[in-house]
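BUG-254 | component: ligand-complex export | severity: low

The export step for uridine-5'-diphosphate jobs runs without errors, but we want the raw record kept on the ticket for reference. Input record follows.
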Amino acid sequence: MIPCIDEAMRIEEETGSLLNDKFEFINHDIRNPFDISCDLIINLACPASPVKYQEDKVFTAETCALGIINVCNNATKYNSHIIHASTSEVYGDPLVNPQSEDYFGNVNINGIRSCYDEGKRCAETLFMDYKREHDLDIRIVRIFNTYGPNMTKNDGRVISNFILQALNNENITIYGDGLQTRSFQYIDDLIEGMIKMMHSNFVGPVNLGNPVELSMKDLANKIIKITNAQIEAIEREYYQRYNSGITQWQQNQY
Ligand code: UDP
């Protein structure tokens, strides 16, 4: 049996696709302590879509930082192994491409994405400190953009937005000029990487992603071609909520 802790806000969205007899859902907010005997904890907590994690920024930062403390305290009590899902966002708006794990990043401390970026950085710091002080058996993976079945339609991230627009025969909206790049990995590859990490003795952090970068313009055209949709990719004003570094919008704010 795999107990899966989630809090009510997201459990309603996810139970439909995940419910099966191997999972026991526990309706609990990871920002509060919990007590569950287990061999292994996989800490995936925290919304990862910019649209979602910016809806309640304090919740996002708390889920990362308080969440990892509660995970580590439970693991210390039951001597559990832990694998923690960190993110490529710990590199912020990187000045080097591709990023290797020893790159410290270029992170905006007080921007609108900072609740997630800094929250995840803080989680890694706490995680390593718990390891040093309590000798926990930990693994850290830094997950890059991932896609696959069971993403929610209103996830807000680029892959599901573009596919939905194409299937609905609506023009694909690219934020900005579409020259910004991302790399995308398929969910099965991510899971394989995480399982390999669990079976290794390497603490990490390890980047898990696809080394090939793709511009959002190319992605849009790829999806138009695959779906054979009679639509076009159009540029839309760069959403301020997507800004990651010191951008024009943020410069105007400070
Ligand atoms: N994006 C876009 N249209 C959309 C959603 C996202 O052009 O409908 C762009 C967004 O501006 C960003 C990239 O796609 O440059 C990836 O955004 P996403 O939210 O998927 O993930 P991120 O890597 O920014 O966390």
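Assignee comment: Attached the raw record above. The longest helix spans residues 57-78.
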